[in-house]
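In the lab's daily routine, each protein ends up as an entry in a very long ledger. A line of letters takes care of the sequence, but it says nothing directly about the fold. The fold becomes a row of whole numbers, each drawn from a learned catalogue of backbone shapes. The protein below has been through that process, and both of its lines are reproduced in full:
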Amino acid sequence: MAIPKSFIQQLLLHCDIEDVVSSYLPLKREGRNQKTLCPFHSEKTPSMVIYPNTQSFYCFGCGAGGDVISFVMRIENLDYVEAVHFLAKRAGLTVPEDGESDKTGQMKTRILEINRETARFFHHCLKSPAGKAGYDYFKNRQLSDKTITKYGLGYAPDSWNALRDHLRKKGFSYPEMEAACVVVKGKKGSYYDQFRNRVMFPIIDLRGNVIAFGGRVLDDSKPKYLNSPDTLVFKKSRNLFSLNFAKNQKGNRLILAEGYMDVISINAAGFENVVATLGTALTAEQARLISKYATEVVIAYDSDEAGQKATHRAINLLSEVGVSAKILKMSGAKDPDEYIKKFGARRFEMLLDDAGNVVEFELNKLKAAYDLENTSDKVEYVRQSISVISSIQNRMEREVYAGLVSKDTGVSVASILSQVDSAIKRKRRQQEKDEWNSIQKETRAATDRINPEKANFYKEALAEEQIIAYLLRNPEDTVQILSQIREEDFVTSFNRKVLSCMISLFQANNEIVLSALTPYFTQPEMGRISQILARTDENRFSREVLEDCIRVLKQHKNSLKAIDLANATPEELERYRENLKKRF
């Protein structure tokens, strides 16, 4: 693909970065800039800054950064072209086509076509005599034909090549099928079907595309569930089963179930607002996705030990993105599917409305684990209860739960609240320390990964960064600056690559701005360029400072001519490097 630069410029005029980011996240004004919690890593103290003057963003915690297109690429899990189309649709613009091919885009299109045809094949098999075993399974689970059709459920025949041969007749190649992960390449080079003798659950994204599959065995063989691995069109950690239906729900509540059948049963009972993870525990990305559609989640996981652990993890992740969680209290059934079958939809609705909050869940779990008649158990119960209560933001709520613990143990409310206050202060101090350490660690990691030569040529790298930042902020001075500095004058490879791209843009009569660089760099690299801008944002350095940066690079280049580097010994090179450090 090659989208005309003129259109990108038009698009950026219609897509102010503050407006776009604020549609996802609450922003807080800090001087000329805006600040928010970064959606790309877990944090409690805002570290992502939006810079209106450069139309860029940068997170000082994880290193994510770039322009408005980079932001949409990350938060919507899109490639560059898809992000442009996404923003164009948002702005009411039409992206012009120029006929150039985009191999990745073409492969994504082919994978989606394969997935759609595969879903049709599985559904047809389910309705045919060959799929009787799968159809009987769904009927035994009390699913109606209407529900089977709504979810596009299917059956993968007990064959090594049925799907493969069907797709081949439809014109798809074996490598394309392998890229879609519907076939697997064997050791001898032959291809065979990924899913065999399983009932199939298509996974559909918010645009209505089939992006992956989940398959369940009909016997006791392992694995019980087989899910598609990640592909060009599917990231299991960033998608949710049935969100394509749940996104249309009325209200601000979602039900988080554990598996496909739970979701389908709950949906069939009249509750569209239900989703499930895809073969894994809830991830931070999925929690952020949920926060776009709900402010409250009722967690309806199984009551076994694994379900309880998954519930605890989900509570923490949802809390981090500002979504309140409630816990479904089921008795008489192990999961929502069984509960609805036994007691009906009306009773399940009452169960949802009576869902307990997280604190009650945690305190009841603790209470069941200790013998409160035993002194040491009672002390441990109080100690752990204090940790739970200290997570509550509202002071009045903390007093209520402190009163419950006091009633159970005989310890005064005042003593419990005093310990809670101390715990809150310790948590806050530890949190600030952890976040600072995380910022330092991730920033160092990003530095080593993107521009490893900076450690050896620190002064020169800083000078290069100043020049890059100056060019991005003052494109009108490009002619004069490029007459003084050339690509080969840059010492570090990454910064040289950035300058080279800028020169190419300039020679093609394109404006040197951050957004013009986005198509040519990876997301981590764009994060680094944004960091360069962010770190120099307050430094309105003069032309004198710029001239000094150019002088540093020229001196370095001239000094290299003073010795025969090609024939120098390691000791001579080390000595030379140390002399340079002292000199500069």
